[in-house]
Predict the 3D structure of the following.
Amino acid sequence: MKKAIIAVPYLKGMGGTETVIKNFAEALDVKNSNNDISWKLISFGGTDKSDWLKHWNKKVYNFSKKDTSS
C-alpha cells in the first residue's frame, strides 16, 4: 500500500486551498476504489472553520490559544 501525506499551514476553513484539498480527496477516493493508497491530512496551525475536515484521516497541530477542531 502506498501512503501519502498532505501537509498544510493554518487555513481559515472556507477558501480555495480547502476546496482544492476536498476535490483532491474526492477524486482520490473514486480512483482508489481498490484501496492501494492511504492518505492523511496534517494541519500545522489548525483552522477557524472545521467542517471541511470532518470526514478525513487527519492530525491537527494547534499553535494558538484558539480552540480549533482536531
Q: What stands out?
A: The first strand starts at residue 2 and ends at 8.
